[in-house]
Specification:
This protein is α+β, with helices and mostly antiparallel strands and 56 residues long. It has one domain. The protein contains one helix and two strands, in the order αββ. It has a two-stranded antiparallel ribbon with strand order 1-2. Strand 1 and strand 2 form a beta hairpin. The termini are far apart. The mean pLDDT is 88.
Length: 56
């Protein structure tokens, strides 16, 4: 299983073509905390940016 963002993207793009705007979701680490509707989730990838979403 891929262990870095780059490894994950290499693995995914071996099977399909990513288009602008595509989002690749991954699993959660063992230290993940529960989220509830209305919570804000920020996903940060160094050198790329931050994706902020509200849990529905």
């Amino acid at each position: 299983m891929p262990s870095t963002v780059v490894d994950c993207l290499v693995y995914v793009t071996a099977w399909l073509t990513l288009e602008p705007g595509d989002v690749v979701m991954t699993g959660a680490p063992a230290t993940a905390v529960p989220v509830s509707p209305g919570d804000r989730v920020d996903i940060v990838v160094e050198g790329i940016g931050t994706l902020s979403s509200t849990v529905v």
